[in-house]
Design goal:
Blueprint: H1 9-28, H2 46-52, E1 63-68, E2 71-74, E3 78-82, E4 95-103, E5 109-114, E6 117-125, E7 127-132, E8 137-141, E9 145-149, E10 154-160, E11 166-174, E12 185-189, E13 195-199, E14 202-208, E15 210-211, E16 214-215, E17 224-231, E18 236-240, E19 246-253, E20 255-258, E21 266-267, E22 270-274, E23 279-283, E24 290-297, E25 305-307, E26 310-312, H3 315-327
Antiparallel strand pairs: 1-22, 2-3, 3-4, 4-11, 5-10, 6-9, 6-11, 7-8, 7-10, 9-12, 13-14, 14-17, 15-16, 17-24, 18-23, 19-22, 19-24, 20-21, 20-23, 25-26
Protein name: Pirin-like protein
GO cellular component, one term: nucleus
Family: Belongs to the pirin family.
Length: about 350
């Protein structure tokens, strides 16, 4: 989905581009995913990893920043709660954006381009249909994941596929400079195919990475872990996180104590940036379930220059991306001849 509001300059620029491309169409008259695993691998076995998740850390990661994501307009009539990518937290290397979206027909995210990063869409409730200018089309439903590598260029749409309110999370993950111009690709998992585990009142859906000795089948170009935890009242969690990785929590439902026992609980729609340490400790002291996403990734430590839906390493590369989209070249050849249905 686009990272701009309907009133922003980039939205206006893209609207002009859309008009330009429609004119070009009138004048004209008329997956293979190659991902390879580069995730850091733990030297411990699956059984020891599962055990580690039950043992407190000598150096737990503490919450170093707390951001409440407020509702804002996005796309065409849609509403999102943006935490990463907002003014309080511009980015958290390698993460560029996190939106909790809430959309009802006819609102949505109509045709828009991307270059230089990946989008991970995780449906919490409802269904969304995605289609792009290469003919890829599909619907992701509650619990499904679409991991899209935009690479050198994609133009696509994301629109509600059911009545009522459709809810989910969309995460943008930056690509290293060497990967920014690769061919686009997809990894798509139905809910039933996502790895799951449960222990001592804590259930986890493992979108990427490993928890409780269970590993996700998803491969990540930028090393990433992504977990959806649900903790029952009275439970606690101690989840290892690779050393040196940046990490955050996004609370979906309920409230919990994060990082250090005895601190004040934090409630839904907060994004918590975690400091250095061995892993995350969480306690659910409330009388209701706590659900949150835990995401961590290996920093790229490269310059980030973003112009709306284009994320590159320099201003010159951004200008090139804009021109490529304008004129339909270097990955955007199909842009001027396509519109979603």
């Amino acid at each position: 989905m686009p990272a701009h509001s309907a009133a922003s300059p980039i939205y206006t620029a893209l609207a002009r581009l859309a008009n330009f491309n429609r004119s070009r169409r009138a004048l004209l008259a008329s997956r293979k995913t190659s991902s390879r695993t580069i995730m850091s691998s733990s030297s411990s076995s699956s059984s020891s990893a599962a055990a580690a998740a039950s043992v407190p850390f000598q150096s737990p990661r503490k919450v170093v920043k707390k951001v409440l994501s407020l509702s804002q307009s996005e796309g065409q009539g849609a509403t999102v709660r943006r935490s990463i990518g907002g003014h309080e937290l511009r980015n958290l290397d390698p993460f560029l954006l996190l939106d909790e979206f809430s959309v009802s027909k006819p609102a949505g995210f109509p045709d828009h381009p991307h270059r230089g990063f990946e989008t991970v869409t995780y449906m919490l409730d409802g269904a969304f249909t995605h289609q792009d200018f290469s003919g890829h089309k599909g619907t992701i439903r509650t619990g499904d994941v679409q991991w899209m590598t935009a690479g050198r260029g994609i133009v696509h749409s994301e629109m509600p596929a059911a009545d009522g309110v459709q809810k989910g999370l969309q995460l943008w993950i930056n690509l290293a400079s060497k990967d920014k111009m690769i061919e686009p690709g997809y990894q798509e998992l139905e809910s039933k195919d996502i790895s799951q585990a449960e222990k001592d009142g804590v259930a986890v859906r493992i979108i990427a990475g490993e928890a409780f000795g269970v590993r996700s089948p998803v491969y990540t170009r930028t090393p990433t872990m992504y977990m959806d935890f649900t903790m029952q009242p009275g439970s606690q969690l101690h989840q290892p996180i690779p050393e040196g990785w940046n990490a955050f929590v996004y609370i979906i439902e309920g409230e919990g104590v994060f990082g250090k026992e005895g601190t004040a609980p934090v409630s839904a729609h907060h994004c918590l940036v975690l400091g250095a340490g061995d892993g995350l400790s969480v306690w659910n002291r409330s009388g209701a379930p706590l659900r949150f996403a835990l995401v961590a990734g290996q920093p790229l430590n490269e310059p980030v220059v973003q112009q709306g839906p284009f994320v590159m390493n320099s201003r010159a590369q951004i200008q090139q991306a804009m021109e490529d989209y304008y004129y339909g070249r270097n990955g955007f050849e199909k842009a001027s001849q396509w519109s979603s249905t």
